[in-house]
């Protein structure tokens, strides 16, 4: 499975594709300078349980870190991902 995650700033989301086909996204919007809200993560049900949503979150948060930003994970999946992956807890905005 060829999985690719790309930022689509014109749509305010990270998009994930599998073998060239778009299968999901993680929406974001700017709350304040340097802080992104993550309100919704969605992946095609045909790809559930295959690690696609986790890869989407991992690569999205890696990009957020590279940009020096923080996040507010609103979506329950995003919240659970950060809880299960403590290496990303430093990205959560405390405010």
State the CATH architecture: 3-Layer(aba) Sandwich
How many domains, as an integer? 1
Q: Report the radius of gyration as a whole number of Å.
A: 13 Å
Helix/strand order? EEEEHEH
Query: Which CATH first-tier class would you pick?
Result: Alpha Beta
Tell me the distance between the termini. Answer: 39 Å
How many helix segments?
Answer: 2
Strand coverage percent: 35-45%
What's the total count of β strands?
5
Q: Give the strand order of the largest sheet, numbering strands 1, 2, ... along the chain.
A: 1-2-3-4-5
Mean pLDDT: 97
Q: Any low-confidence stretches, pLDDT <50, length ≥5? A: none
Helix content: 25-40%
Quick one: overall form?
A: globular
The CATH homologous superfamily is termed Gcn5-related N-acetyltransferase (GNAT)
CATH fold name:
Aminopeptidase
Q: What characterizes the major β-sheet?
A: 5 strands, mixed
Specify the structural class.
alpha+beta
InterPro entries: Acyl_CoA_acyltransferase, Gcn5-rel_NAT, GNAT_dom, GNAT_YJDJ
Domain N-acetyltransferase: 1-95, 6-93
GO molecular function, one term: acyltransferase activity, transferring groups other than amino-acyl groups
Pfam family, one: Acetyltransf_CG
Q: What layout of secondary structure does this protein have?
A:
Blueprint: E1 3-8, E2 13-18, E3 21-32, E4 35-43, H1 52-66, E5 70-73, H2 76-84
Describe the structure.
The chain has 95 residues and is α+β, with helices and mostly antiparallel strands. It has a single domain, classed as Gcn5-related N-acetyltransferase (GNAT) (Aminopeptidase, 3-Layer(aba) Sandwich). It is 25% helix and 39% strand. The protein is built from two helices and five strands; from the N terminus they run E-E-E-E-H-E-H. The protein has helices at 52-66, 76-84; strands spanning 3-8, 13-18, 21-32, 35-43, 70-73. Strands 1-2-3-4-5 form a five-stranded mixed beta sheet. A hairpin with a 2-residue loop joins strand 3 (21-32) and strand 4. It is globular and about 40 Å long. InterPro entries: Acyl_CoA_acyltransferase, Gcn5-rel_NAT, GNAT_dom, GNAT_YJDJ.
